[in-house]
Structure to design on (82 residues):
């Protein structure tokens, strides 16, 4: 393998979604200077995420389709005859 192109430190990291206040433990090579205490009593590196599947509107079911130009109604009207 080539030297210097592979990430170092594949380790357990706690990811925290700051919008949903949810955390989970996973393995990653992400670099971070902060640490946190996990549920098992061990200390792991902490990486804060602004959004994840726990807070994203698409995954939470809070997504709404906004049609400001009336394209949906135009489509329904056009093909309602068939």
């Amino acid at each position: 393998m080539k030297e210097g192109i592979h990430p170092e430190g594949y380790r357990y990291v706690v990811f925290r979604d700051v919008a949903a206040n949810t955390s989970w433990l996973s393995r990653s090579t992400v670099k971070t200077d902060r640490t946190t205490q996990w549920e098992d009593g061990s200390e792991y590196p902490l990486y804060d995420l602004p959004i994840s599947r726990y807070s994203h509107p698409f995954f939470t079911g809070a997504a709404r389709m906004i049609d400001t130009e009336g394209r949906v109604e135009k489509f329904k009207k056009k093909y309602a005859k068939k």
In short: The radius of gyration is 22 Å. The chain has a mean pLDDT of 82.
